Each structure stands twice: as structure tokens, then as C-alpha cells.
Amino acid sequence: MTTVLLVDDHPLFLDGVRAALSGRPDIEVVGEAHDRRGAVEQAASLRPDVVLMDLNLPDGSGIDATREILAAAPGTGVLVITMSADDDAVVAAMRAGARGYVVKGAGRADLLQAVTTVAAGGAVFSPTVAARLGTYFDGLAAQPGREMFPQLSQREREVLDLVARGYDNRRVARELFLSEKTVRNHVSALLGKLGVADRSEAITRARRAGLGQEPG
């Protein structure tokens, strides 16, 4: 039995998805959430096989919710519900750990296929999104600072790189598709891990390691 948690703040859409999934005896909708906080709490409690995640939630981003859910329930597969497969937010969600997406308005067969694929540990990508992710991870593999700052997480290195370019928290949030609060938390964490007193000292160390260079 594949268990599914639905996350969306549109009741009519949820009704449609629930109806589409209910026809399969091997799929059970175990919960519904209408905001980021509820999604994270229910995922941690229910440990569903798949979370169908809307990216636009009343109290935050589905991207942040994806990251929090995977931290709380690592075995869960997040499947993004999106209006457009070409949206930058879809790629950002994949970076956060989502395993694929289903376009709103997709047919029942496509929805079921996506859910079963993710539940089985697979991924659902279009060629366009897959190509963009490939470029992203190729660049990440060669990212300066990976050996210089092994104590930092991948996301913290990304934040540090942008901070070293002189970006403020708002610009960093926009570049990484995060909330400003999340960026502030990452900055505080990386300052502590680097053992520096302030942002200026972190920038100096990052630039010495080769971070903070504008692409191109």
C-alpha cells in the first residue's frame, strides 16, 4: 500500500486529486494539509510514502516545506504539484530534494504514474528540467570552497558564495528561491561553523577560498 499526503490550499483541487487516487486499491490518502506548517507536522507524524506538494502555500514556500519534510522524514518522496514544468521554482524544489513533479490539470493516468514512480524511489522529470538540473549539479561539483569548508552543508556553501558576492539576504533569498528568514538562519549557522564574528569576516574568508566570484 502506497500512502500519500496531499498538500494544497485549494479545496476543489484537493477533492479532484483525492478522487483520482481513490480508484487505486494500492494507494491510500492518509492526510491533507493546507499550509507549510501543517505539511511538515503531518509528514513527520504520518511518514507517508509520497507527499504531493503545492509550491505556493499561505505561510511559506513549498520549497522550504520540502526541505523540512525530508529532514524530518527522509524516507518520504516529495512530488511537486505545479502549474508550469518550466518554472524556476520547480528546479529549486528539485534542488531541495523533491523527486519530480506533476502538472496541475494532468490526467489521472499521469498522476497515478508519477505517484507510483516516486513511491518506488524513482524520479519524474521533463527533459528541460533534467537538463537544467544537470547543469546545476555539474557546476556544484566544481564549486570552490567544497574542500575549504567541509563543515558547511551544500546549502550553506551556496549562501556563503552569494554573501561573498556582496548580496544582501533579500537577494540571496531570490537567487536560491528561499525565504529571507531561511537565509538568515543559514547565515547565522555558517557564521558559527566558520567561527567568525560577523558577516564581513565570513566574506573575507570566503573570498580567500575562491568563493564570491560572479559567473562568467
3D architecture notes:
- The chain is of the alpha/beta class and 216 residues long.
- It folds into two domains: 2-126, Rossmann fold; 144-208, Winged helix-like DNA-binding domain superfamily/Winged helix DNA-binding domain (Arc Repressor Mutant, subunit A), CATH 1.10.10.10.
- It is built from ten helices and seven strands.
- It has helices at residues 11-22, 36-46, 62-72, 88-95, 108-119, 127-141, 154-164, 169-176, 180-194, 199-208, and strands spanning 2-7, 27-33, 50-54, 56-57, 60-61, 77-82, 100-103.
- Strand 4 and strand 5 (60-61) form a beta hairpin.
- It is elongated.
- The termini are far apart.
- The CATH topology of the largest domain comes to Rossmann fold
| Uncertain stretches of 5 or more adjacent residues | none
Beta percentage is: 5-15%
Radius of gyration: 19 Å
For the record, the CATH architecture of the largest domain stands as: 3-Layer(aba) Sandwich
Helix-strand topology string: EHEHEEEHEHEHHHHHH
Taking strands numbered 1, 2, ... along the chain, how are they ordered across the largest sheet? 2-1-3-6-7
CATH superfamily of the largest domain: Response regulator
Protein name: Response regulator transcription factor
Keywords: DNA-binding, Phosphoprotein, Transcription, Transcription regulation
InterPro entries: CheY-like_superfamily, NreC/VraR/RcsB-like_REC, Sig_transdc_resp-reg_C-effctor, Sig_transdc_resp-reg_receiver, Tscrpt_reg_LuxR_C, WalR-like
